[in-house]
Structures are given as C-alpha cells and as structure tokens.
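Q: I have two molecules that I believe assemble together. Could you output structure tokens for the complex as a whole instead of separate predictions?
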Amino acid sequence: MNRHTMLAAAAVASIAVATAAQARDQIRIVGSSTVFPFSTAVAEQFGKSTRFKTPVVESTGSGGGLKLFCAGIGVQHPDVTNASRRIKKSEVDRCTRNGVKAITEVKIGYDGIVLANSRKAGPTRITLKQLYLALAKSVPADDRGETLKDNPYRMWSDIDPSLPGRKIEVLGPPPTSGTRDAFVELAMEGGCKQFPAIKAMKKTDKKRYKAICHGIREDGAFVEAGENDVLIIQKLVANPKAFGIFGFSFLDSNADRIQGTVVNGVAPEFETISSGDYPVSRSMYFYVKQAHVGVIPGIKDYVAEFTAERAWGPEGYLVDKGLIPLSDEDRKKTMKAAMSGAKLSM
Amino acid sequence: MTDAAHVPGGGPHDPALKRPTLDERRLRRRYAAERRFKAYGVAAIAIAMVALVWLLFSIVAQGYQAFVHTHIKLDVFFDAELLHPSGRNTPESLAGANYGAVYKKALRDRFGDVKKRRDRRSLYALLSQGAEDDLRDMVLADPSIVDTGQAVWLTASDHVDMLVKGKIERDRPERERPIKDRQLAWIDALMADDRVETRFNTRFFSSGASREPELAGVWGAIMGSIFTMMVTLLLSFPVGVGAAVYLEEFAPRNRWTDLIEVNINNLAAVPSIVFGLLGLAVILNFFGVPRSAPLAGGMVLALMTLPTIIIATRAALKAVPPSIREAALGIGASKLQVITHHVLPLALPGILTGTIIGMAQALGETAPLLMIGMVAFIVDIPTDPLSPATVLPVQIYLWSDMPERSFVEKTSAAIMILLAFLVVMNAVAIYLRRRFERRW
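A: Yes, here they are, computed for all two components at once.
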C-alpha cells in the first residue's frame, strides 16, 4: 500500500516536472473578444502559410488578457494580447513590476459600435444627447444640467417628438464587456457632456461626473443581454420594437435583417467609421511581449502577417471579416514600428 | 371527513361506522380526484415531452443543413506552368504549389468577361479557400493529372452556400445582402448548367476550428474531448472506486468518516466553475501543467466527477447482500479476497453505470474549462494530452458567438454531435445495467 502511494505521488510529480520544463513552440494569444475574430483569422492564415504551428487564441476580454499578459515572462505566460481599448497606465505599471518591460503596441484598425433594430421597423435617427437621455440612470432636470432627476422617459417620443412613439427597450452588453465600456465612454459621455453644467463638473468633481455620465438606467429599459451578440440579433429580429448595441461586424454580416441607427446624422457604414465621422467608434490594438520574440518561434512572423497589406489592407481578408482599416499612411507607420519592435511609451 | 350524518342510526360502537360509506356522490368525488391526479401526471409528462421535442426540433431544423455543403463544378486545367513555374515535379513542390491560381483561372475561363480587379475579386469569392485544398488533395493522390483537364467539384464559399440553402433572400436590395447582383447572375448561370450541388460535408467531420465557416469542423474538438475524458477516467475511476471501497468496507463508523461522507455529498453539489478556479490555482500555477492542455482539463473534470463516482460506487457496494460477504468469509476468504473476488465483481455494473453517467456530465461541461484556457481558438488537431485542445461544448459556445451567418447552422450541428455522444454513453450505461445486473 505504502509503496503504491509513493509510486503514484512520484508519477504525479514527474508529470508536473515534465510539463513545466517543456518548451513551447506555439504562440499564445489572449485578450479582447472584439479582436478575437480578426486575431483568429490571422492566426489561421499564419498557420497555413508558414512552417510555424497555428497560434492558440483565447478570448478573455481586454482586461483579462492584459492581466495574464502582464503576469510575467516565461513559457507559461502569453506572448501577445489583444485589446479593444488602449493599455492603461496602471496595467503598464503592473507589467513593469512583473518584469515585462518592453511591450510593442500595434493599432490594427477601428470598430464601430452600432445601435441597431430590425428591418421590420422603420429606420431611426438619433443624436448622442437623445441617446444619453434615453439610457442614463439620472438625467438633467433643466437645459444646462444644474440639477438632476431620475430618468422619467418611458417612450422614445417623450424625449423628442421626432423619435418613434415606442417604449424604450435597448439590449446591450453587460458591464464586463469592452463593448459596454466603449459605448458608455463614447456614446453616453458624448451626449452627457453637451450639458454645460455637467461638462464643467468634469474639472471640479470628476467622480460625480463619471457617475452621472456613465450610469445606465436599471429600471428595465436597458436590458443586459449577455456577451453573445448573435443572441442579441436574434432577439431583435423577434422583437422589432427593441434596439440592440453591438459591434459593427455583426451589423455587417446581418444587414438583411437589421439596420443601423443614424447617430448625429451619420450612418454606421464602413466609410464613415473609417473616416472617423461616425461618433461611436474605437480603436483596436494588440500588444507584443518583446522578451518572448526570438524565444517563442514565429512571433515576428505573426506580426508581419497581421500587418501585411493582404491582411489588414483595404482589400485584405480582415476587411472581409469586418475590420475597418487604418489610413494608408497610418498602416505604413504602424507596420514599421511594429516590425522594428518599438517600445510602448505612455 | 366525517360522514356520520349520512349513516342512519350509527352509534360509537356500531361496526357499520367503520365501513367506508358507499354513498354514490362521495365515490364519484373520489374517482374524480384520482382522475385529476392522473391527469396532472400526464400533463407534466406532456409538458416535458413538448419542451424536449421543441428543443430537438429547433436544433435539428437549424442544423441539419450543416452536414451538406454547396459545391461548384468547374472545368479545371491542371496547368504545370501555373502549379510550379520552376518545372520540377517532386511531391514537395506539388504540395506547396499555387492551387489558387488554378481555380481562379478556371473561373475566369468560365466567365470570360471579367476584367476589372474588383469584379475579379467578387468572382473568386464564389469559391472558398478550401477549393485550393480540394485541388491539392486531387493532385497529391494522383500526380498524373497534371497538365490534363478535369471537371472538378470545388467547395463554394459560405455566402454562396447560404444562398443555395435559401438562408439569404434574393429579393433584398443589393446592399443588404452579402451576395451582390453580379455574383447572383454567375451563380444562376452555373445553376442553369447543373454545376451547383450540395454534397456531404466531409470537412465538418475531419478538420479543426477555422474562421471560415465552410472549413470549420468538429474533429479537433472531438479529439480534445476524447483526450480530456481519457485523463478524467484514468484519474477519477481508480480514485473514486478506491475511496468508495474503503469507506464502505473498511472504514470505522465515527465522527471523521461521517464528516468525510457529508463533505463528499456536498462536493457533488459544488458549482463546476469553482473546480475551474481550483484548477487554475493548483494544476496550472502550482503543478505547472500547460494552459489549454487536455491533461489540465481532465484533472479538473476528474475532481468534478469524483463525488458522483464515489456515491454511485457506494450505493452499488451496499446493494451486494451481506450473505455473500458472510459466505465468503465463512469458507475462509480474507477480507481482501471477499472484496476483490466477490463484492466488486457483483457491484461492477452499478459502478460502471455511475461512472459513465459522471463522464457524460463531464463531457458536457464548459465552465471549469474557461479558467484553464481551453476556451480558445485552436486549429491544429490535438495529438496528445499535452497539446492545446478544446472540447465539444466549448466549440459550440465559441461558434455561437461568431458573426458569420453560416456558424449558426454549424453550432446546431455540433450540438447534435454532442447529443449523439451523450445518448451513446447513456445507452452503454443502460446496456451494462441490463446485461450484468443481478437481482437478489
């Protein structure tokens, strides 16, 4: 009996040691679920067209990805992380503390966030201010935003007669999602700071400003529909009265069933997001751990594949997947910086 | 209820009082109550059946078309010039040759009027990148077809596939559908020629994950599931049965064993995500097992399956009558002999049933795998328990969140495959029980 337990313990220990010592010959990528569809497409092409193994891509969310990425240097830590927002100062500090000093930032393109509804209902035009009034937890009681009240609006037409006379019902992502962060920052805050008194508050009381501008109502008009955008689209098709919030690529692949709402007079289209006219769009990035380049085979070639014209160019395969590319000049500049391994500076 | 009022002349000692009243109204009420009770049962079963049928119907209706894929027949000329301009004809050069150029030329030959770069792109988009693989496989299987012309069925792109399967509406305005007017005209011309056909989708069963819906398959996930289940079984079966045998046959009854028993029963009810967190902390960070490896997944799922196996095994051991043990002891068998020669073989059907049901549960689990990196995009088919892998339910979850429309049917098809695995496993459990179970 005793001998057997010792044998078993030895077996477990040897497995653990063997795996810890095993070198990795495969790139590991983590990060944003928004960048996931693009990152996987590049990984697959890379695996097909080079002698390297296909990288493993995990969808952990931007924050989760950066946490793993900054955990340290070594084969058990990922080499690349995707993010649908820029890395934060606190995350860079965390990285530095754990020895991850040289990081290269690569901006890959833009993603628009759309407010969409079923084609069975008519198209809608809305301004950021109206959107804020429809979805905020508390709204200004006067034109300047000196005083606040709980959001009283039940119907879209309560806010402005030009909006549809339907109940406000918006399906959107939960607070853990990067899409929600971006929507709150770009759309809600964009509408919120049009009230002069609130805008002035940004300088005097930043905390309160954030609470007012970023607070989404919880009385049932905004429904947290989970991270699954496909599900939101199915719900929109079933319920033409509702609106949904998700990334542009999902609108693009389902354009026969749903339509994007015109925001501030600009429709969410490829051209308008690319030019920056569409107000609710964000940049997407990936970050490379320079300490792993040359140790884990193929990282440089992966970056080269991502930044090749046939991938992220205006006619590249990523565009077919819904990526909105950078301008010609920005692409050239970013590619050069990425390939030379330029260090991130905040 | 007292019916004393209905019984004429009944005293407290009258034996007639004890007899049930056979009053017709009361009888009718009793029968009605019984009928209602039966009806509730029937209604409950009906609701469950309707829910099940509805679920299965919606999955099958959405997914059955994923088992076929649209192919387009083209007259392809395997031009040696295009395949390998250097002129050498070795197997290596054939494997790395430019098959894209071959099918693109075939498309241009079929529709000669396409000159502009943009139009050419949309023409090439009729076929999938998989068309290259189709051609490569053909040439590698039979190199003599180089420099000959052949009529070949090639894999169509996912948009064409959706159109042929009727999931893209033709009468939408052009900018609202992924297939443009020009492409529609080309497809109609091909259809008129009988060159468009849906064929069995072998790729779906032979390839790993892919970003192109038409190239995506479940084989990688199935292999991942097999490796994970192997590890789970190898760890949880011996440990679970060992623990159960000790607790049932050897352990003294005291406060400690009671405590262990309570804990095992509680463990069976712990949410599976908790095991994932444990796996991250212990198996990945402490033992250093690589992320995404089936070894790590199997270890986590083994922890989750252990209580199920222990409880089932103990129940099976309890069901073996004490007379067997006593008889064996009586003719001089040792305690070990009693267990290994008599009790365990008799309890085995019950143990196996419990194990299979525990494994089936583990097969459908995703939450604990989230934490240890098995929710990932992995193209290469895993070859051993240490290579990165994902499992079937995770593949379903990942596909359900892809923007491309074709992934909807792939998702449902993968669900069907997972359900098939579960049904087979449960059928095996039932068979084992029927075949080997002994009644006392």
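A: One point stands out. The longest strand of chain B covers residues 68-77.
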